[in-house]
Design a protein that fits this description.
58% of the residues lie in helices and 8% in strands. With 217 residues, the protein is mainly alpha-helical. Helix 1 packs across helix 4 and helix 5 packs parallel to helix 7.
Length: 217
């Protein structure tokens, strides 16, 4: 139940709770994912959140490639996060982040954008990986983690101009914000409570607030 535990980790970081568990919405059927993406969609990707609004209701499902889930079960990043499982960990966490952000905003009847969701996922990946490494007693240097997550952006083929701009903007703002967060960790443990306060405040902001907040650093 790695994905449910990732959800619990994010909920603890942001001091939130939702009555749904991500693995209840999970599927692994690649052909079904391609069908749901529809004609003209980009090639199947190993992780994708599907959302369909029906009046006031939102139907949600999360696709994660079966091989990714299998590798995570056999090499659990919540037990030991390392270079060999980091990619699968980040992929799964992105899906969980998207699911949780959707569920939390919907539960509070808040409107959000896809850019907002992608930006939050960038932040979630950095802070969750950082906290995990520290809890496991094998801390990565903050600088090394920033380089791994926010190196040159490689976008998959088939994205339209709007999608490319959205991912690039989320990546750029995510890098700037996480670099600012890193300065709060220079003194290690004393900085962690203040960091949690900052993260919880940021999570509850809308897109305009998030971008303006980051621009202020």
């Amino acid at each position: 139940m790695v994905l449910n535990r990732l959800q619990q980790a994010l909920q603890h970081t942001y001091d939130i709770d939702i009555p749904h568990r991500v693995e209840d919405f999970l599927f692994h059927d690649r052909e079904l994912a391609a069908h749901m993406a529809g004609q003209g969609a980009v090639a199947p990707v190993p992780e994708q959140l599907f959302m369909v609004q029906d009046g006031r209701d939102i139907n949600v499902s999360l696709y994660i490639e079966r091989q990714v889930s299998q590798r995570l079960r056999h090499d659990d990043p919540l037990e030991h996060l390392h270079g060999g499982n980091l990619h699968d960990f980040l992929l799964a966490l992105e899906g969980v982040s998207h699911f949780l952000y959707l569920a939390w905003n919907a539960g509070h009847e808040k409107v959000f954008t896809l850019l907002e969701m992608e930006l939050q996922a960038e932040v979630d990946k950095f802070v969750t990986a950082l906290f995990l490494c520290r809890d496991q007693g094998e801390p990565h240097s903050v600088e090394a983690l920033l380089r791994q997550l926010f190196g040159p952006l490689r976008l998959r083929k088939g994205l339209n101009a709007h999608q490319r701009q959205r991912y690039a903007t989320a990546h750029r703002y995510g890098a700037r914000y996480c670099e600012a967060l890193a300065t709060r960790l220079e003194h290690r443990v004393p900085a962690v409570p203040a960091l949690h306060t900052e993260l919880r405040r940021f999570y509850r902001m809308g897109q305009a607030q998030k971008l303006a907040h980051i621009a202020g650093y």
